[in-house]
């Protein structure tokens, strides 16, 4: 396959507890971008329109029994839990929708797994762990490498002593660096907001590293 692009698959999850071995998914969000962090939105047939945003996809999962949800999540994630209760779908169905979305990109079927889209986000190991557990078909479309923006955050703040990119409560700052069409309307405990914020954060660090070269 000639002429394929380097793509990033920006992915985030919200889940029931910090102990990943027993955690259940509550929400997922996905935006696919080119290497310049510009979203490449798709509207595949077979995916409910209410799950699609202008730049990507977001969906809630079936609400687990209350005893499987940590006290912290029960106390702080009520809007999300309400959406899961009224709109939640089984993990197998979400896996199919995510896969249908990625099927629109020829890069995801490249025989060389190193040329497939790279999963990207903050603390992406947790999202990868849960995707491997609940979303195996989706994960099979992706590169085995990951882009963790948290690594750049640590390098920038600890080594370069630069100012941290503050996301929560700063939609205007995110909008400044976000290169998509969707508005920045969420906040913490919202997977789609976290995806947008991570994309903006990487753009911010890139701009700062380039400035240091001047």
Q: What does this 3D model show about the protein?
A:
The protein has 8 helices and 5 strands. It has 214 residues and is of the alpha/beta class. The chain has a single domain, classed as Nucleotidyltransferase, domain 5 (2-Layer Sandwich), CATH 3.30.420. It has a 5-stranded mixed beta sheet, with helices on both faces. Helix 7 crosses helix 8 (191-213). The termini are far apart.
Radius of gyration: 17 Å
Second CATH tier, the architecture: 2-Layer Sandwich
Briefly note the structural class of the backbone.
Answer: alpha/beta
CATH class descriptor? Alpha Beta
Number of strands: 5
Strand content: 5-15%
Concise summary:
The chain is of the alpha/beta class and 214 residues long. The protein has helices at residues 71-76, 78-87, 91-103, 124-134, 136-139, 149-159, 171-177, 191-213, and strands at 8-15, 25-33, 56-60, 118-121, 146-148. The chain has a 5-stranded mixed beta sheet, with helices on both faces.
Q: How are the SSEs placed, and which strands pair?
A:
Elements: E1 8-15, E2 25-33, E3 56-60, H1 71-76, H2 78-87, H3 91-103, E4 118-121, H4 124-134, H5 136-139, E5 146-148, H6 149-159, H7 171-177, H8 191-213
Parallel strand pairs: 1-4, 4-5
Antiparallel strand pairs: 1-2, 2-3
Helix pairs in contact: 6-8, 7-8
Keywords:
40% helix, five-stranded mixed β-sheet, 14% strand, 8 helices, 214 residues, Nucleotidyltransferase, domain 5, alpha/beta
């Amino acid at each position: 396959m000639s002429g394929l692009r380097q793509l990033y698959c920006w992915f985030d999850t919200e889940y029931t507890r910090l102990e990943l071995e027993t955690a259940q998914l509550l929400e997922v969000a996905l935006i696919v971008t080119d290497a310049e962090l510009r979203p490449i939105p798709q509207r595949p047939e077979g995916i409910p329109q209410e799950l699609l945003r202008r730049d990507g996809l977001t969906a809630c999962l079936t609400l687990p029994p209350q005893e499987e949800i940590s006290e912290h999540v029960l106390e702080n994630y009520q809007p999300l839990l309400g959406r899961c209760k009224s709109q939640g779908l089984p993990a197998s169905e979400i896996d199919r929708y995510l896969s249908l979305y990625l099927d629109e990109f020829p890069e995801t079927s490249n025989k060389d797994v190193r040329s497939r889209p790279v999963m990207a986000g903050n603390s992406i190991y947790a999202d990868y762990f849960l995707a491997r557990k609940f979303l195996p078909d989706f994960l099979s479309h992706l590169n085995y490498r990951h882009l963790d923006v948290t690594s750049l955050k640590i390098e920038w703040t600890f080594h370069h002593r630069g100012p941290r990119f503050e996301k929560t409560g700063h939609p205007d700052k995110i909008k400044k660096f976000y290169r998509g069409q969707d508005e920045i309307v969420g906040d913490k405990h919202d997977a789609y907001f976290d995806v947008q914020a991570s994309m903006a954060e990487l753009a911010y660090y890139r701009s700062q590293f380039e400035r240091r070269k001047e």
